[in-house]
Amino acid sequence: MARYGLVIDLRKCIGCSSCVAACKLENMVQKGNWWNYVIEYEEGEYPNVKRIFVPMNCMHCENPPCMKACPEKAIYKNDYGVVLIDYSKCKGRRYCIAACPYGVIHYISKEKTFYDNHETPYEKLPIKAKHPLHRKKAGIVEKCTLCWHRIEGALKENKKPGSDYDSTPACVPVCPAGARYFGDLDDPDSTVSKLIREYKAKRLKEEFGTKPQVYYIF
Amino acid sequence: MKNLKSLIFLLPVIIFSGTDVKKVAKDIKEGKIDVGEEYGMEIGQRYHKIHSEILGIDCEKCHIEKYEENYLYQRKYKLPEGDEPGVVKREVCIKCHKLKGPASLKLYNIK
Fold first, then answer.
1. Do A99 and B91 touch (CB under 8 A)?
2. Residue A68 φ/ψ, nearest 5 degrees
3. Mapping DSSP to helix (H, G, I), strand (E, B) and coil, where does residue A133 land?
4. How far apart are CA A151 and CA B78, in angstroms?
5. Which CATH number fits the domain that encloses residue A143?
6. Contact check, Cβ <8 Å, A63/B109
7. Is A204:B72 a contact under the CB 8 Å cutoff?
8. CA angle A167-A40-A145, nearest 5°?
């Protein structure tokens, strides 16, 4: 069974936030929440300074503390290593938010539309017309799904996830710098595995023992 | 005398470790201690009450003035970043909540 993950090359990332915008649009993320976000900071001292951009999304950890913390067992890891939230079980207790060391889970405090007094065509859709992973409501939590709806679609069509635009997480193909890679971490011949080996890609906050499935090339 | 000194030094550790914390957790779960139903870390909410009022942990033990520039925590740009007396660095949590810590939650895989 494949185990999907991401590799983000921080040497290439220019902090344009295309991934942020693509994610927001693809998943209709609640106003004020971000499944994907770019953290910026500076390193070095003048004149030898450089700006670092670190795109952050759910790390889809091998040992997800959010999953262990959830008293409702609403967070689960599927067979492909993707950590997902069952919105029908979530009661918004927010243990997961307190447990996540990356701060990537968000609470939907109240349902807001993107524009005041105006609903977008997507917002007008009845809840049942949406993919189960998009059936969010107020009072629950939300986070990146690694665009599971896209991966799932590809698997149903016997396509290899990551092989074309529609079967890849939305944040990956939109990156103008080509800094994001998606693929099977268990396949030694996949691009992501090769990059991890070649550049000794690192995972964030390894001291927590969460074993994230998002790798960074520094 | 040396033993007494070690005991005094270890007293806070002994008090905060072992059964006390576990008993508090049990009492909260059984409803003997009321910490409210508002699940959250902000002042007045459940987790804040547990740490501050029930366990009596000083503010400075958890709160730092601000995140370091390179601190990678997505929600640091959201509230309550500016809250007094400062933000909570997640590394602080694992000091107690690691696998064999006094308030082990088995959340993180740290021994």
1. no
2. -70, -30
3. helix
4. 30
5. 3.30.70.20
6. yes
7. yes
8. 25
Q: What is the pLDDT of residues A128-164, one digit of tens each?
A: 888 999 988 889 999 999 999 999 999 999 999 999 9
Establish, for the pair of chains A and B, how many residue pairs have beta carbons separated by less than 8 Å.
Answer: 71
Residue B111's alpha-carbon distances to A43, B7, B18, in angstroms, are 32, 25, 16
CB contact under 8 A, A210 and B73: no
Question: Please, are residues A99 and A21 in contact by the beta-carbon 8 Å criterion?
Answer: no
- Asked if residue B41 belongs to a domain, the reply is yes
pTM: 0.86
Q: Provide the domain count of chain A.
A: 1
Min Cα separation B5/chain A (Å): 33
> What is the value of ipTM here, to two decimals?
0.86
Interface of B with A in 12-71 (CB under 8 A): 39-41, 47, 69-70
Integer CA distances (angstroms), B9 to A16, A89, A110, B17, in order: 52, 46, 48, 14
The CB-side HSE value for A133 (13 A sphere, CA atoms) comes to: 20
Residue B88 structural domain: 2-97
Residue type, B12: P
A92 contact residues in B (CB cutoff 8 A): 39
How many domains would you assign to chain B? 1
> A156: domain range?
4-217
Sign of the four-CA dihedral A30, A31, A32, A37: positive
pLDDT value for B18: 46
Q: Chain A contact for B92, CB < 8 A?
A: no
Average pLDDT, chain B: 75
Dihedral (CA of A114, A84, A40, B64) sign: positive
Q: Identify the H or E element spanning B21.
A: helix B19-29
In single-letter form, the type of residue at position A56 comes to M
Yes or no, beta carbons of A56 and B108 under 8 Å apart:
no
Give me the residue from B39, B74, B93 closest to A102, CB to CB: B74
Q: Which among A65, A59, A52, A14 is positioned nearest to A36, based on CA atoms?
A: A59
Name the residue in chain A with its Cα closest to that of B90. Answer: A101
Contact B110 A209 (CB under 8 A): yes
| Residue B26 belongs to a domain | yes
